[in-house]
Amino acid sequence: MLSTFFMKDTLDFSPGTESKAVRQQPGMTDSKQLSDVTAHNDNVVEISAATQTFSCGTTGQELSLHLLSLLNCSGQRKAAIFRSTSLTLLLLVGSQLIASEQSYISVDVIPLTESVVPGEAFDIAVIFSMAEDWHTYWQNPGEAGMPSSFEWTLPDNFTIIMRQDPTPRRHMEEGITTFIHEEEAIYLFSIEAPDDVADTNDFAVDIQWLECKSLCRPGSSQQHFTLEKGTSPTPAKEKWESLLARAEKHFPLIDLELSGTLVKKVDHFELSLKPASRTNKLQRADFFPFDEMVYDSGKPIQIKHGFRRDKIIIPLLKETVTYPKALHGVLVQIHQTPLGLITTNSIINQPLQ
Amino acid sequence: MRPKHIMISILTLLIAITGFSRDFKVGQTAPVFSLIDANGKAHELQQYRGKYVVLEWVNYDCPFVKKHYDSGKMQQLQATYTGRDVIWLSINSSAPGNQGNFTSKEIKRRAKAHGAAFSAYLIDSDGKVGKAYGARTTPHMFIVDPQGQIVYAGGADNIRSTKVEDIGKAKNYIAAALDEALAGQPITNSISKAYGCSVKY
């Protein structure tokens, strides 16, 4: 898409002036296209600034015509056009490479407080906003990819007491299964302040991720912010509540007392669960394990309905050397209810029988 | 059709019917294959019986592969172990039109630019060999012993990142496995999680 848009640009080589890029505006309907155009604008500026001045009656011609004009000029003019054309082509290629480094994912770090209160905890939201079809990876990325990482630099004696990650989505491409985040992924870090807090407190986080849309490239963002010492917690603000509501929609609930049993069969774990009620029927389920190299991510999770129990079949990897003593990860259950489909995401740590 | 071509076709058919393998284990017989290299020469796994063979799934445009080549580590491993009579086969399973599927000319140009020291760069455009081995990522590494058994499957090292500076900090599983194997010792880490870009089948 980038190259298509870019080649729609025409180059205006006015006599005796610096060349200027003139955009033929494509129809823009989505954020992906808007981000492309932003990248192009940068490229256009770069080309305009670097292209040589010359004159040979090529005013307003497109690049292809500009190349053809070589045939109609002679001597010094030909040489000038050739140099200019070569440079333009080089810059076009170069600018394409620069454009290819354009990130399709932006990351914002938002403290959900205006000050630090001694001995109190506060939350920091890290928000990944992804262009259409681009994705990042969950903490266990599945069969390929790389999880996003967060390296915090905190003031003395501040500690991260909790991190909440959104529930991923199963993604299959060419037979390879990965666990991904799309569109928006909000992480929440709870940080506890010590009893003794300085007047000014500096925080920094180095965020690394892999962004993919059939092709992958690494992304990173280094962000920092400062919070002053306060005496009482900041009242929740409307914009934070909206953000938290979006985040909590995807956070799994912690359900460590799942009313079920787990047994190991030859090539799978079998998790038996009591139906939630007579009217709610488990329709689909998925499982995202925290442990890697244990479960066969590429095989689908299956459900067997029983009279008293529903069984969720979780395939094990044959390459695994040792099996865990518990099923630890995020369990997604989709129930058909009289009110429609209800999805429940829970963190489970179900011990083997 | 000449006998050699018939044999290649049979081998290809055997691989084709196996589909995407998720079920092999270290210690099992390595799937046989025959692939053409960037010079048009056929390579059969069986012709290397009696030697250790490293299979390296590669895609030069994948940032994880770039890490291993930009640091010079992968080329260093290739040079070191081919110098010790190990066969090193780099394999690309990208489908035509997908990232990493290059012309022979481009493969040679890139290999030269990298100073690659593999025994051969094999082209698996239909992905049959990659799927037979269950190669999911680039890089994804396998070591086949002189008897044709898989003795290592997994990643190149233990730091899942795209940063060149991590190469020096990482434990390289291939070097460790080959050093042990060539010394006649059992391989301590015979399996690891492969990490990287997905293979562009």
Structure report:
The complex is a heterodimer of chains A (353) and B (201). Chain A is built from five helices and 21 strands. Chain A has helices at 2-7, 31-50, 63-68, 75-100, 238-248; strands at 10-12, 20-22, 105-111, 115-116, 121-130, 135-142, 149-153, 159-164, 169-173, 176-182, 184-192, 200-213, 215-229, 253-254, 260-264, 268-273, 281-289, 302-305, 310-315, 326-337, 340-351. Residues 1-75 and 87-100 of chain A have low confidence and may be disordered. Chain A has a four-stranded antiparallel sheet, with helices on one face. In chain A, strands 4-13-12-7 form a four-stranded mixed sheet, with no helix packed on it. Chain A is globular, with a radius of gyration of 28 Å. Chain A folds into three domains: 1-99, no CATH class; 105-231 and 242-250, Thiol:disulfide interchange protein DsbD, N-terminal domain (Immunoglobulin-like, Sandwich), CATH 2.60.40; 254-351, Sandwich (Immunoglobulin-like). Chain B is built from six helices and nine strands; from the N terminus they run αβββααβαβαβββαβ. In chain B, a hairpin with a 5-residue loop joins strand 7 and strand 8 (150-154). At the A-B interface, strand 12 and strand 13 of A face strand 9 of B.
